[in-house]
Amino acid sequence: MIDDIELLRLIENNSRLSYEEIATMLGTSASEVEQEITRLKEENVILGYTTIINWEKKAPDNCIGMIEVRITPVKNKGYDHLAQVLSKYDKVTACYLMSGGFDLMIIYEDKTLRDIATFVTEKIATQEGVLSTTTHFILKKYKASGVIYDNPERDDRQAIIL
Amino acid sequence: MSIDYNDKISKAVQQVPPSAIRRFFDVAAEMKGHVISLSIGEPDFVTPWQIREAGINSLIEGYTHYSPNAGYTDSRQAICDYLKRRYGVSYDYKHELLITVGGSEGLDLAARALINPGDEVIIVEPCFVAYKATVLFAHGVPVVVETKPENNYKLMPEELEAAITDKTKYIIIGYPNNPTGAVMTLEDYAKIRDVLLKYPDIVVLSDELYCELNYLDSRPASLTQFSELRDRVVMVNGFSKSYAMTGFRIGYVAGPSELIAPMVKIHQYCIMSAPSTAQFCAIEAAANADAEVAKMREEYNHRRRVIIKGLEDAGLSCFTPYGAFYAFPCIKSTGLTSEEFCERFLIEKHVAIVPGNAFGACGEGFVRISYAASMEDIKEAMQLLKEFVEELKKG
Ligand SMILES: Cc1ncc(COP(=O)(O)O)c(C=O)c1O
Q1: C-alpha–C-alpha distance, residues B262 and B268, integer Å
Q2: Closest chain A residue to the Cα of B360, Cα to Cα
Q3: Domain B5-46+292-394 is of which CATH architecture?
Q4: Which of B123, B142, B250, B340 could make an S-S bridge to B278, C-beta 3.0–4.6 Å?
Q5: Rounded to an integer, what distance in angstroms lies between the CA atom of residue B242 and that of residue B324?
Q6: What are phi and psi of B10, to 5 degrees?
Q7: What distance in Å separates the CA atoms of residue A54 and residue A61, rounded to the nearest whole number?
Q8: pLDDT (0 to 100) of residue B379
C-alpha cells in the first residue's frame, strides 16, 4: 500500500522522478506508483507539473504585481464569479479569496509596471462589484515555491566522519 | 631531542592505535571536493532553522555564561519531557539527567565513573570507534562481542552471556547502529533483558544517538523501557544525529541518580557545563521539532531504499538496515580487503566510503556506506559502484 501523502510530498519536491525511481524510494512497484498517480490525477489532486525557474536571471525586467481587490459580491454569485473571471487571464498566476481587509488577492505577471497598471484599471476596476484595488509590486524574490533563491548554506563537513 | 616521549605519554593512551585506516583517511581528505562522499557519519541536513534561531536569540538576550553544571533547568526539563513523550520513560530532571558535550562526553564519563583498572567492558562490534577507546583510556579491558549479518547485526542473548565474566562492569550497546544500520526491537531487547536479569551487577550503557532514525518503527525502542532494569541502564543520547546538530556539541545522559551523580562530579571538574547556546537550541529541538525530524526521517528512508536497491543491482550482498543512515554491504565476493576496495573505489571512481574494519576486526570484508548525502549523489555513486564491481569481476 502506497502512502499517497508521502508520494505527493515526494513528487511535489521533484516532479521529474520516474515511476521506477519513486517505486524504489517508497518500497513498492512501478506499476503501483503509476496506478496511484493516475488515480490522483483523475481526482484532480495532481493538477500539473511545473519547473521552478529563477526568471530574474532570464527576464530581469518582468514585473509581478500583488493586487488586493475589495468587492461586493454580485447577487446570487458570491465571490466565486468574479474570482473565476479574473482567473481566466493567463497572466494572472494566482487568485485567492482572503480574510481580513480585502477580498481577493490577485497575482499578476507582465513585462512592465505600466502593463500591470493597465490591467488593474481596465480589467479589474471595471468589473461589476469591484469597490477598490491596491497594487503592490514585488521588488525582489528571496524565496518562492518553497525554494530559497540565494542560499549561502553549503556542505562544510569533513571528508570522513566515523 | 632529550625527552623520550614514549616514556612520558600514558600507556593507556599509547595502547590505543591511531585509526587503523589512517592512510585511507589521508587519501580521502586530499580528494575531498572532487569526490562523492558517502563516507560521512553526520547528517547532510543543516539544522532546522527554528533550532538555530533559538540559539541566536539566547545570544541576543546575553546568555553567554556558564550554565549550572548539569545544564539549565529548562533544558533538562525539556529533555525529560521529550523522553517521556517519545520513550514513555520518566526521568527526574534534578537527579537523573546530565547535559553533556555531545553523546561523546557521555561515553567518556561512563567509562571514568565506572571503571577500576582491569574491569571488563563488553563492546558489541562492529561499532562506533569511541566505545573501545574510552574504555582503554579509563584503564578498562574491552571484551568484544561480534554481531553477524546473518543475525541482522543484532546482539544475540547467548553471545552476550558467553562474554560475561565476574570482571564484567558494564556493557555498551548502540542501536540503531553505526556502522551497520541495524536496529533492535523491543522484543529483541527483551531477550537481552532476560540475560541481564541473571547478572544483577552489570550496568548497561545504551548509546541511542540515532534513536529517531528508525525506519521500522518511528518510536524508539530501548532497554530503558524495562522498569526492572531501571536501576542500571544509562542512556547516552544527544541531538547530533536526530536533529542534524553535530556542530552544537550537545547531548545528555539519563539514568538512575546513583550513576548520574558520579558522572556529574567528573563533568563539573573537567567540563564545567555544556555550551550554553547549544542548550537553548536543545530546548527548541526537544520541544518543537518532531515535524522536522519526521521530514528528515522520511527522506533518509527514501535514500535507504535507493541504496539497498543499488547494492542489489551491483551484486553486493547486504542485510537490510533499518536504522541510522548507513548500509554495511559485504564486499568479500570481490576478493579485495575492505581497505583495498575503498581505496580503489575512491581513486578509480571518485566515491568515498569507509572500510568496515575501521569499526572492529569483524568489519573486515564489509564497507560502510552513508546515505547522509543528496539523492543525486547517492544515485550516481550507486551507478559507479555497479560499474566498479563489474570491472573487478571481469578482472
Ligand atoms: C553511535 C554514535 N554514538 C555517539 C556519537 C557521538 O555523537 P556526538 O558526540 O556528536 O553526540 C556518534 C557520532 O558519530 C555515533 O555514531
Answers
A1: 10
A2: A162
A3: Alpha-Beta Complex (3.90)
A4: B250
A5: 9
A6: -55, 140
A7: 12
A8: 97
CB A51 within 8 A of CB A57: no
What does pTM read for this prediction? 0.94
pLDDT digits (tens, 9 = 90+) for A5-31: 999 999 999 999 999 999 999 999 999
**Quick one: which atom of ligand 1 is closest to the CA of B251?**
11
Strand-pairing partners, residue A147, are: A144
Residue B34 is predicted with a pLDDT of: 86
pLDDT per residue over A103-141, tens digit each?
999 999 999 999 999 999 999 999 999 999 999 999 999
State the nearest Cα–Cα gap between B195 and chain A, in angstroms: 30
Angle between helix axes A4-13 and A30-42 (nearest 10 degrees) is 90
Q: Where are the domains of chain A?
A: 4-42, 57-139
Class of A4-42 in CATH: mainly alpha
The CATH number of the structural domain formed by A57-139 is 3.30.70.920
Look at the block and give the residue holding cell 558494564. B170
- Residues of A in CB contact (< 8 Å) with B are 6, 9-10, 21, 24-27, 153, 155, 157-162
Amino acid identity of residue B30, one-letter, is: E
Q: Would the CB atoms of A159 and B39 count as touching at under 8 Å?
A: yes
- When the pLDDT of each residue in chain B is averaged and rounded to a whole number, the result is 96
* Fold adopted by B49-288: Aspartate Aminotransferase; domain 2 (3.40.640)
Residue contact A160–B302, C-beta within 8 A: no
CB contact under 8 Å between B128 and A158, yes or no, is no
